[in-house]
Amino acid sequence: QVQLVESGGGSVEAGGSLRVSCVVSGYIDSRNCMAWFRQAPGNEREGVAAMNRAAGFTIYADSVKGRFTISQDNAANTVYLQMNSLQPEDNAMYYCAADSTRLGCSSDYWRVMSRYNLWGQGTQVTVSS
């Protein structure tokens, strides 16, 4: 059974950086889409970034473009989200997700939660002003 386990969240001041990790236990095709979502209290869960690991394709929400970077370490079976220039509006629980039922990341639908059948438990990111 495939599991996604996030880690690396924490508390930082505005302008700081954090890197969160998602370790994949079990097999996920490198052509499957993997993504990071986040959910702040009272808000809906939103897509932050996604990647097709085999193709090196990445895509980002406008709100994080230029500040966040999604990447992978194939040997460690891990997907990362490097977050720079963090702001209080980035406060949220961050979730790793994978779509093991399709190949590739759709630029039109990558932010649709229902496309992802595998989810981690989340890691909290807190940014203070």
Structure, explained:
The chain starts with a strand and ends with a strand. The radius of gyration is 14 Å and the shape is globular. With 129 residues, it is mostly beta strands. Strands 2, 4, 5, 6, 9, 10 and 11 form a 7-stranded mixed sheet that branches. A 4-stranded antiparallel sheet has the order 1-3-8-7, with no helix packed on it. It contains no helices and 11 strands. The protein has strands at 3-7, 10-13, 18-25, 33-39, 46-52, 57-60, 68-73, 78-83, 92-99, 118-119, 123-128.
Topology:
Layout: E1 3-7, E2 10-13, E3 18-25, E4 33-39, E5 46-52, E6 57-60, E7 68-73, E8 78-83, E9 92-99, E10 118-119, E11 123-128
Parallel strand pairs: 2-11
Antiparallel strand pairs: 1-3, 3-8, 4-5, 4-9, 5-6, 7-8, 9-10, 9-11
Distance between the termini: 41 Å
Report the order of strands and helices. EEEEEEEEEEE
Oligomer: single chain
**Inertia-based shape:** globular
Mean pLDDT: 96
In a few lines, what is going on in this structure?
This protein has 129 residues and is mostly beta strands.
What keywords describe this structure?
single chain, 129 residues, mainly beta, seven-stranded mixed sheet, 11 strands, 0% helix
